[in-house]
Amino acid sequence: MRYLSQRHLQILLDRLFPWRKPKALSQTGALCWRETDGRKEILLITSRASGRWIIPKGWPMEGKTLAEAAAQEAWEEAGVRGTTRPLPVGSYRYSKRAGQGSAVEIDVTVFSLQVLQELDDHPERGQREKIWAPAEDAAGLVSNSSLCALIRACV
């Protein structure tokens, strides 16, 4: 028997019952940071679709905790590895464009990841830009106001 992923089930339900209030889907994200000259810097990457500055994030992974999945996304999307704290530092919500102009609400549970290693060769190399920015500057670069507040609260 084959099961639908949470994302595919949501899309199917939206098409079958367009009048119902869709429930938010869940993702996990990594707030990647390092200390340089005594000040905290935050890693931001661009989204592939819009080019906006975001943090590494993605869908939960079978067999991994949300913190482990966040660390895996940080590796795949930004090429960083480090120490992830097991408890989330917060969450934020965003709207993701689905097919044919509709949007799906997504709640992202965010985990702190202290970066210990940064590698140039990683799965999504060349698909995104990345920058290290002082925490206050990073907060100003993201367009999602909830993510901005989360970054400010974590410094």
Structure, explained:
- With 155 residues, the protein is α+β, with helices and mostly antiparallel strands.
- The protein has one domain: Alpha-Beta Complex (Nucleoside Triphosphate Pyrophosphohydrolase).
- 26% of the residues lie in helices and 37% in strands.
- It has four helices and eight strands.
- The chain has helices at 6-16, 66-78, 135-141, 145-153; strands at residues 25-36, 39-46, 53-54, 57-58, 80-84, 90-97, 103-118, 130-134.
- Strands 1, 2, 3, 4, 5, 6, 7 and 8 form an eight-stranded mixed beta sheet that branches.
- A hairpin with a 6-residue loop joins strand 2 and strand 3.
- The mean pLDDT is 89.
CATH topology: Nucleoside Triphosphate Pyrophosphohydrolase
Average pLDDT over all residues: 89
From the N-terminal CA to the C-terminal CA, the straight-line distance is 47 Å
SS summary, helix count: 4
Envelope shape: globular
Radius of gyration: 16 Å
Summed up, the domain count is 1
Strand content: 35-45%
Which ranges are low-confidence, i.e. pLDDT below 50, for 5 or more consecutive residues?
none
Helix percentage: 25-40%
Give the name of the CATH superfamily: Nucleoside Triphosphate Pyrophosphohydrolase
Number of strands: 8
Order of helices and strands: HEEEEHEEEEHH
What's the architecture in CATH terms?
Answer: Alpha-Beta Complex
Biggest pleated-sheet summary: 8 strands, mixed
- CATH class bucket: Alpha Beta
Structural class: alpha+beta
